[in-house]
Structures are given as C-alpha cells and as structure tokens.
Design brief:
- The protein has 300 residues and is α/β, with parallel strands linked by helices.
- 46% of the residues lie in helices and 11% in strands.
- It has a single domain, classed as NAD(P)-binding Rossmann-like Domain (Rossmann fold).
Length: 300
C-alpha cells in the first residue's frame, strides 16, 4: 500500500453526493483540515447553499460542481473541470448514493434496480474511470474512498435486497481497485467506507426519492409512506423509547483519521463487524445461508 496522506492542507478533495448528510460532514472535516474541497451533487440549489455555508464556516476554498454520477459523460465533465482548475486530485470520495423502498426480491421493480445500481454502482465506477487515470498521470499521492454500507459489505438485510446488492457490488469493486493499484505500484491508496456508529444516520438516503428521475419511477406505487428518521424518533417517543442518532461529524472525523492511518476499512464499530463476518463465515463453511432468518431492516 502507498504511503498514506497524513496532511490534508492544500490537498484537492472531491466528494460526490456532497450537498448534504455524510457528504457535507466529510466536506466540513476536510475543509477544516485545510483541504481545497470540490463538492458535487445533482441538487444544484442545495449544492450551492452548502458550498457557500462551508466557505463561511471554515474559511476554506469550497467549490460546487453539479454532476449526475449515474451519467458517465457528466462525471467525465466533472473530472475534466476539476483537473482544469487544480491540475490534480488527491482524495476522491465516491459518496453519492440512493436507497429504493424495501421489497421482497420477487416484488421489487425493474426501475428500482436501474435507479439504485445507476447511482450506487455505476456512480462509483464512473468516478473511478474518470478520475483514477488522471490521478495516475499526475504522479501525485492519492486516495480513493468508496462509500458502501454494512448492509451489503458485512451482512445484508433481506428487506433491503436491492440496496444491499448494490452496496455489496461497491465493496467488491473497491477491493479489486485497491489490489490492482497496489500491484502496479501506483501511489494511490483505496478505502472502503462503511458509515456506521451507535445510532441512526440522519442522511438524505431516507428521502432519496426526491432525486429519482421520472423515467425511473416505480412501476407500482409503494404501499406505505417512506420512513424518515424524524418519523422513527417520533414513533419511538410515543412508546417511551429513545432512538440514538449518530453524529455525522464523528463519522467524518473517523474517515480522515483512517485515511491518515492508511486503513482500508473505514468504519466506527469495526470490531463488531468483524465478529459478524466471523459468524457468517462459520455458517458459510457449514453450508448454510450466512444470513439467518430475522435479520432485517425497517422498510425505508
């Protein structure tokens, strides 16, 4: 593995899905560390507002460039513009992601698969294909971070089958990318980012339908309203329970720490995930489905 980037001051950092949620938290963390941050998102208004707010909060240089990660031409234009402005990219965070409604595999709709894989998988692949060759050519040290999920990379939740399948694909292509870059000796490290923590992550993933293209709308309407973090917290409060929320700044800070430490897997609670993988490996070795009945997810 190449020597890690331990000082982010003056480094060019590109983050997709950067207008809100984890992307915004990462942008703020990198900006406070002195990086030159380029945010990309499909939501132009939110992107502009976030870039302006971060410039005011941190005093750092933060640019916003609209791009649709599912469109390879759009991502190619993003990469070309970043290299035109800065001549390099040191850290690429392929973070944009969406989540379709939960469904049984045989009841999921074709457009759920097209939309989810278009953003979550092709979006990451497009980012790699457009940025990594330019990063290699620049000869500068670099780091690629791909956002996956414990739901897919560690243990899939059956009700989130489409989403889990997409995130499992991201985990695999990230592993392959890291091995290939290392084998060829390029000074570019790779990390798999699994957002996690001790509570729910309040991100735009819960309301991803707001950006769903009309031509990829569900072929059959969902039977229940989309669940939100606010709705879950309110429902729990009525029952006298409290649902913890994981602060996103802690998640972002751990990503910067992990990059500087040269870690492949960036995840709060990684030891717990390792134990889960060990149990799954034992079931696999015994010829059993690694996913036990009852391991499920709330209907997003």
């Amino acid at each position: 593995m190449s020597a890690p980037i331990t000082d982010f001051a003056g480094r060019v950092v590109v983050i997709t899905g950067g207008a809100a949620g984890i992307g915004r938290a990462l942008a703020e963390a990198f900006a406070r560390a002195g990086a030159l941050v380029v945010l990309s998102d499909i939501e132009a208004g939110a992107l502009a507002a976030t870039a302006e707010a971060l410039r005011e909060q941190t005093g750092a240089k933060v640019d916003g460039i609209v791009a649709d990660v599912s469109d390879e031409a759009s991502v190619e234009e993003l990469a070309a513009e970043v290299f035109r402005r800065y001549g390099r990219t040191h850290v690429l965070v392929n973070n944009a992601g969406v989540g379709p409604p939960g469904a049984k595999v045989w009841e999921s709709t074709p457009n759920d698969w097209r939309w989810t894989f278009g953003v979550n998988v092709y979006g990451v692949a497009n980012g790699i294909r457009s940025f990594v060759p330019r990063m290699i050519a620049s000869g500068e040290p670099g780091h690629v971070v791909n956002t996956s999920s414990g739901d897919g990379a560690v243990a899939p939740m059956p009700n989130a089958s489409v989403y889990a399948a997409s995130k499992a694909a991201v985990a695999t292509l990230t592993e392959c990318l890291g091995a290939q870059l290392a084998e060829e000796g390029h000074p570019i490290a790779v990390s798999l980012f699994l957002p996690s923590g001790k509570g729910l992550l309040d991100t735009g993933l819960w309301t991803a339908d707001r950006n769903r293209p009309t031509d990829l709308a569900r072929e059959k309407p969902r039977s229940t309203p989309a669940m939100t973090v606010a709705g879950l917290v309110a429902a729990a409060a009525k029952d006298g329970r409290e649902i913890p929320i994981q602060p996103l700044d802690e998640v972002a800070d751990d990503v910067l720490r992990g990059i500087a430490a040269g870690e492949y897997c960036l995840m709060l609670g990684r030891d717990d995930a390792a134990k889960t993988l060990s149990v799954r490996a034992e079931r696999f070795g015994a010829g059993l489905n690694p996913t036990e009945t009852g391991h499920n997810l709330l209907d997003l």
